[in-house]
Design goal:
The chain contains 13 helices and 17 strands. The chain has helices spanning about 55-65, 110-115, 120, 125-150, 185-195, 235-255, 255-260, 265-270, 280-290, 305-315, 365-375, 385-390, 405-415; strands spanning about 5, 15-30, 35-40, 45-50, 70-80, 85-100, 150-155, 160, 170-175, 180, 200-205, 220-230, 280, 320, 345-350, 355-360, 400-405. Helix 4 (about 125-150) packs across helix 6 and helix 4 packs across helix 13 (about 405-415). The longest helix is centred in the N-terminal third of the chain and has 23 residues, at about 125-150. It starts with a strand and ends in a 20-residue tail after the last helix. Bound molecules: 4-amino-1,4-dioxobutan-2-aminium adenosine-5'-monophosphate (4AD) and magnesium ion. Magnesium ion binds next to strand 16.
């Protein structure tokens, strides 16, 4: 019996006879030879069936295989210098495991709606496979970075009574006769965790019923939210840039094949690992836009995506925009020490038009000031009384941030739309499949 292997491990089995389970992604054949593009989830490579080397039945079966038929094959692993993957299998036997007829996603071009309706199958394609590998590496490197740097992972609840990022885009649900919301951010709970454990991070799903139908908005997305006690914003910014550089480097190191499939410019990605990232103030960003004939924005407005893209294009690396007007930011942000119209915060804007990937700030530490903000924002004092407690019992300076996983995947993978950065995207008009 030949040893069962995965395609990705081919390099360790050159010259050996092996067995593997795979799907037929595509097929090319002539009178004497059949080339099967095989995929097993770990990678893609070519299987070669030569008429003169196999039985008549095997050759006939190879010729009849249809797209996405699952097979068990045996054969010998060989080097294949012509392919990017570098290896192929010379097939000696084929056994069909599951037939596949009229597979809907063919090599021809399909429209986006069609592909989104078949997302459960589209995930099998080479590009989607590469994107998910980049996503997986960003996740892996995130845990590695925070574990190495003394953070502990804390899981905030998903069902909550609070609305840290404003009440307009909350998903409301019935909680045994009371209102509850799907979490739009774990931050407030992470602040409690920071007071208990020092440096913490969360990594979980968040939900926003945003009416935005853009290339950057999902209804359900994953966020990494670190929170650090005894830390001011300046030090938090250093952690943010180190973290982003670290995960980009990890993708460069460990996703060579995926980046190649995605045709991502790795020289460009390398630039994003060079620190520090530039920092400009919100005021300067407004001036920059005005100097460049943006007449549709005034001091006090939030940036739209054309603004963010213009600012991003003015720098070679991700750029921090710091100290936004208080009026357009959430209630928990600490006001600037010398200016009460702006808060101590920063958004990190990704290059190449991918928009904001991080939002973060220093948090208000004073009980009375925080209570006043909670009231001003029309939030319930009762609902936030636990959060106020954090300012009652040993309040300390603390800062934190949230990085959106899907926006980061979209940027690092260099793809057009955030819907391809998550296995099953939830969009304004889509919850299928
Ligand atoms: O800027 P946001 O709203 O910040 C917070 O939620 C803070 N409580 C984080 C914190 O300080 N702990 O969201 C953070 C990031 C954004 O920069 C963006 O990358 C992502 O989350 N994000 C979205 N990603 C996809 N679809 C959406 N609808 C998103 N909304 C925010
Ligand atoms: Mg934000």
């Amino acid at each position: 019996m030949s040893k069962m292997i995965s395609i990705i491990d081919s390099k360790d089995h050159v010259g050996e006879s092996v067995q593997l389970g795979a799907w037929v992604a595509s097929k090319r054949s002539s009178g004497k030879i059949v080339f099967l593009q095989l995929r097993d989830g770990t990678a893609y490579f070519q299987g070669v069936v030569v008429k003169s080397e196999v039985s008549e039945e095997v050759f006939a079966l190879a010729k009849s295989l249809t797209q996405e038929t699952s097979v068990l094959i045996t054969g010998e692993i060989r080097e294949d210098t012509r392919s990017k993957f570098g290896y192929e299998i010379g097939i000696s036997t084929i056994e069909v495991v599951g037939e596949s007829h009229d597979y809907p996603i063919t090599p021809k071009e399909h429209g986006t709606d069609f592909l989104m309706d078949h997302r459960h199958l589209w995930l099998r394609s080479r590009k989607q496979h590469a994107i998910m590998q980049v996503r997986n590496e960003l996740i892996r490197a995130t845990y590695e970075f925070f574990n190495k740097n003394g953070f502990i992972k804390i899981d905030p609840p998903i069902l909550t009574g609070s609305a840290p990022e404003g009440t307009t885009d909350l998903f409301k649900t019935d909680y045994f006769g009371r209102d509850a919301y799907l979490s739009q951010s774990g931050q407030l709970y992470m602040e409690a965790a920071a007071m208990a454990f020092g440096k913490v991070f969360s990594f979980g799903p968040t939900f926003r019923a945003e009416q935005s139908k853009t290339r950057r908005h999902l209804i359900e997305f994953w966020m990494i939210e670190p929170e650090m006690a005894f830390m001011h914003q300046e030090e938090s910014l250093e952690i943010q840039e180190q973290y982003v550089a670290y995960i980009v480097q990890a993708v460069l190191d460990n996703c060579t094949y995926a980046l190649d499939v995605l045709e991502r410019d790795t020289e460009q990605l390398k630039k994003y690992t060079e620190l520090p990232f530039p920092r400009i103030s919100y005021d300067d960003a407004i001036d920059l836009l005005k100097e460049n004939n943006f007449d549709d924005i005034e001091w006090g407005d939030d940036f739209g995506s054309p603004h963010e893209t213009f600012i991003a294009n003015s720098f070679e690396k991700p750029v921090f925009i710091m100290n936004y007007p208080k009026a357009i930011k959430p209630f928990y942000m600490k006001p600037h020490p010398t200016r009460d119209d702006v808060v101590i915060c920063a958004d990190l804007i990704a290059p190449e038009g991918y928009g904001e990937i991080i939002g973060g700030s220093e948090r208000e530490t004073d009980y009375d000031k925080l209570l006043a903000e909670i009231k001003k924002f029309g939030l319930s004092e009762d609902e936030y009384s636990w959060y106020l407690d954090l300012r009652k019992y040993g309040s300390v300076p603390h800062s934190g941030f949230g990085l959106g996983l899907e926006r980061t995947v979209t940027w690092v993978a260099g793809i057009d739309h955030v819907r391809e950065s998550i296995p099953f995207p939830r969009l304004l008009n889509r919850i299928y499949p």
